[in-house]
Amino acid sequence: MNHLKQFCIILVFSFAGEVLNKVIPLPVPASIYGIILLFICLETGIVKKTDVKGAGTFLIEIMPVMFIPAAVGLLESWEVIKPSCIQFIAVTIISTFAVMAVSGKITQFIIRRGRKKVRADE
User: Angle between the 2-23 and 30-44 helix axes, to the nearest 10 degrees?
Assistant: First the structure.
């Protein structure tokens, strides 16, 4: 019963994201609005981490299963994708390395900033 309550809390934020998506004329997916709202509520203490932890963990654990329909869709449209396969692979490789590089730089920046803050507090 506890997981059902947690899942319903997550669904409320997903629904709020859908509403915001319809109200705000920006090209931002509804799921992003919902996750930002949930993040804000978690950070401000409106929603406690324990209120969504179990359902959130479950959803993360089954996330790979959620990619199966997308993969099947790609396989079904192989004839359309086949002529552009090299371009898709190139974009995938380049974007993967770009995301890794940017994520690494941001992580290094945050770690260094944290170390400077610790030194300043001492």
Answer: 120
